[in-house]
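Need residues for this backbone.
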């Protein structure tokens, strides 16, 4: 089958378009014919080698974390899906590879595609949808009447998280550039901070939750907007000891995670706040709950551009500019 292959880790490096063996199907797997694949900053970071200590993929391998497609066949122990079903997923770590014509996905990672979305729209959802769900529902326990600051509101995670937070009944503030103010307002943001002309840390206070996807300077400033008991959740790091334990990392890496996050954890604790790092996990059950929200009209995917499969390297280069509004998607069929 045709695929885009990472032959070696290299910052900004191009993927090779070539042939790979057909996926092998285990008893609990579903073989999917991929129609569209979403791109994420995580793809770029893995390509660049930033996650080598945490996600030790061994080149050559197929990149890609989001997909939508049609079931070709199912393993002997799979009962929830059948050939012909339209599905979508973020395959679990260690089994990525959506920039290919086909993929074998564990059935637990898979969900039926929202009926009201195209394949391209559906492929834009899994990683960002699960990230937002696990941050706001699982980690923050966000509920009606609370206040949340979502950084980078026009990005993939941000556009989804704003809508989910509004569905949960929260008051939502977000940071974005001047060009994207109208977009985030259309998604439901109550307070919009134009980071080019305004400082969020001087304008906001008394927040229950902050979802951070930006750098260390923004992370540090975010402490000041939270009230005692508030939660600072970061999807951009630094990783913390709980993450190291969940991943089963060795003693050396656990100590490194402890050291990297020591400063922000200490500052948060000193203010009566909680800091945690979130690295989302594949979960078909949660994705099914997201499907229900999309079909009910509570959330819609926000897409920037769709590239043809042959232009996957161009799509990654565009993603790397950091200027996309919502998701960048590759269309295979």
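Answer:
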């Amino acid at each position: 089958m045709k695929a885009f292959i990472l032959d070696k880790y290299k910052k900004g490096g191009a993927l090779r378009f070539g042939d790979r063996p057909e996926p092998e199907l285990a008893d609990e797997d579903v073989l999917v014919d991929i129609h569209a694949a979403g791109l994420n900053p995580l793809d770029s970071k893995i390509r660049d080698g930033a996650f080598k200590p945490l996600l030790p993929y061994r080149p050559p391998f197929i990149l890609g974390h989001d997909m939508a497609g049609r079931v070709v066949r199912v393993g002997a122990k799979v009962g929830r899906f059948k050939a012909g079903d339209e599905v979508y997923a973020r395959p679990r770590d260690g089994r990525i590879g959506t920039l290919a014509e086909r993929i074998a996905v564990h059935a637990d990672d898979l969900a039926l595609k929202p009926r009201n979305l195209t394949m391209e729209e559906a492929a834009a959802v899994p990683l960002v949808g699960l990230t937002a769900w696990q941050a706001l529902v699982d980690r923050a326990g966000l509920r009606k009447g609370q206040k949340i600051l979502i950084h980078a509101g026009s990005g993939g995670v941000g556009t989804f998280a704003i809508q989910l937070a509004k569905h949960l009944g929260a008051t939502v503030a977000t940071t974005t550039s001047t060009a994207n103010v109208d977009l985030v307002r259309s998604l439901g943001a109550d307070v919009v901070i134009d980071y080019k002309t305004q400082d969020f840390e001087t304008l906001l206070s008394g927040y229950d939750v902050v979802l951070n996807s930006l750098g260390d300077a923004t992370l540090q400033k975010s402490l000041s907007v939270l009230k005692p008991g508030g939660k600072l959740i970061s999807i951009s790091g630094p990783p913390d000891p709980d993450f190291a334990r969940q991943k089963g990392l060795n003693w050396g890496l656990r100590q490194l995670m402890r050291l990297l996050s020591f400063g922000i954890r200490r500052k948060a604790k000193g203010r009566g706040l909680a800091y945690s790092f979130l690295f989302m996990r594949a979960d078909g059950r949660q994705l099914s709950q997201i499907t229900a929200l999309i079909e009910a009209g509570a959330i819609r995917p926000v897409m920037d551009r769709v590239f043809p499969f042959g232009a996957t390297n161009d799509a990654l280069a565009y993603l790397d500019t950091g200027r996309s509004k919502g998701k960048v998607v590759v269309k295979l069929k």
